[in-house]
Amino acid sequence: MQKKVNIEKAIRRKYPEQVVLVTTVKPNGGTNVMAVGWVAIASSEPLMFMLGIDDGAFTYELIRKNREFVVAFPHDGMAAEVLFAGSRHGHDCDKISKCGIKVSKAAKIKAPLLTDAVANFECKLVDIYRPGDCPLVIGRVIAAHENVRAGLKRLYTVAPGHKLSGVKPAIVKIKKNG
Amino acid sequence: MQKKVNIEKAIRRKYPEQVVLVTTVKPNGGTNVMAVGWVAIASSEPLMFMLGIDDGAFTYELIRKNREFVVAFPHDGMAAEVLFAGSRHGHDCDKISKCGIKVSKAAKIKAPLLTDAVANFECKLVDIYRPGDCPLVIGRVIAAHENVRAGLKRLYTVAPGHKLSGVKPAIVKIKKNG
User: Fold this and answer.
1) pTM for the model
2) Inter-chain touch B148–A2, beta carbons under 8 Å
3) Which of B5, B6, B13 to mutate to test the interface with A (most CBs of A within 10 A)?
4) How far apart, in whole angstroms, are the C-alpha atoms of residue A28 and residue A91?
5) B124-147 pLDDT, tens per residue?
6) Most CB atoms closer than 10 Å: which of A15, A159, B12, B40?
7) Average pLDDT for residues A75-97, to the nearest whole number?
8) Distance between the two ends of chain B, CA-based, in angstroms?
9) Which residues of chain A does B5 touch, with a Cβ-Cβ cutoff of 8 Å?
10) CATH number of the domain located at residue range(s) B17-166 in this protein
């Protein structure tokens, strides 16, 4: 049964929410990294991602400048790195060195891959679209990489307050429908 | 370690992926329902959702006509209904009656709530945006409802082939970072 509640209350039922890390190249050649939770596939052919990145983010500034970035799926052992990347500001802090995330060379762009991620997607900026209070960055995937460890699981935000975890499928039986 | 692979292969590492059900009103006054996996929050204030809905979908036609719809989070016991809603075409089939999904009256729009869902969001169409091969429907939430059962868990797509399940958080320890 449904009960009408504040929008802010109802949206707290959204978890688990996916989280990705986004790498960009800084003016000094170093790498910046940011955690993004508002993310979805936006096109199949070609594959595109939509990322909600706030106006003040260093990543947003660097994406507009470089017009390229990497979307990485962190694994379920990277909670500390994701929390750090998502709660510190790239203008003030070299997040990559501070949290010890390993990076490796991408195939087609300058922004690096995250060596330990489940998968990495090299993206070219297609558009920035703003239907509400947040710029939505659209990236076209031009190359992809996956971790050689096949069983590696993605990290998710599992509860309010940036509570991060892996998630285990709890298989439910699908009854037959007409 | 990363290995460069086809984009189609790497994106199969995306799971669990969220899935929502979208209700719309049909010209005969009945309800249509569709499952959508390309979904993300697109704005905070006001709250907006982005939904990737393919051109041929009855839902897409009805959203353009009515300019309103409901986004519902199915619970982990609704796998059969979601699979049915996502694999049958609303033009040919009254999906609501066929799979026995219960609906109830919304507060501000004609499209109904799903009575058993984890939460329901009444949306007004803001825009349709197409960066790639899929229309992205942007809806502004104008009212929200949640299930009175607080512990109810959302359903997710947990593997390729529309394999649906609940997901159990597997809490990982966050080590301290400087």
Assistant:
1) 0.95
2) yes
3) B13
4) 12
5) 999 999 999 999 999 999 999 999
6) B40
7) 89
8) 25
9) 144-146
10) 2.30.110.10
| Ranges assigned E (strand) in B38-160 | 39-43, 48-52, 68-73, 103-104, 113-114, 119-129, 136-147, 155-159
Q: How far apart are CA B54 and CA B132, in angstroms?
A: 11
Q: Least CA distance to A175: which residue of chain B?
A: B80
Contact criterion met (CB < 8 Å) for B40 and A39: yes
Nearest CA among B35, B37, B14 for reference residue A20: B14
d(CA A21, CA B108): 37
- Would you call B150 helix, strand, or coil by DSSP? coil
Give the pLDDT score at B98: 86
Bridge partners (DSSP) of residue A50 are A40, A138
Query: How near does any CA of chain A get to the CA of B93, in Å?
Result: 11
Contact criterion met (CB below 8 Å) for A3 and A54: no
Tens of pLDDT, residue by residue over A47-70, are: 999 999 999 999 999 999 999 999
Q: Which of B121, B148, B126, B112 is nearest to B67 (CA)?
A: B126
Question: What 3-state DSSP class applies to B28?
Answer: coil
Token code pair at residue A148: 């050689």
Say if residue B164 is exposed, middle or buried (CB neighbours under 10 Å; 0-12, 13-18, 19+).
Answer: buried
Q: What is the pLDDT of residues A148-177, one digit of tens each?
A: 999 999 999 999 988 999 999 887 666 655
CATH class of the domain defined by A7-166:
mainly beta
Average pLDDT (B51-79) is: 97
Sign of CA dihedral A143, B161, A19, A40: positive
The pLDDT value recorded for residue B11 is 97
Q: With beta carbons less than 8 A apart as the criterion, state whether A81 and A74 touch.
A: yes
- Per-residue HEC secondary structure of A57-115 comes to CHHHHHHHHHCEEEEEECECCCHHHHHHHHHCCCCCCCHHHHHCCCEECCCCCCCCEEC
Please judge whether A81 and B121 are an interchain contact, meaning their C-beta atoms are less than 8 angstroms apart.
no
Q: Which of A44, A81, A171 sits opposite B165 (nearest CB)?
A: A171
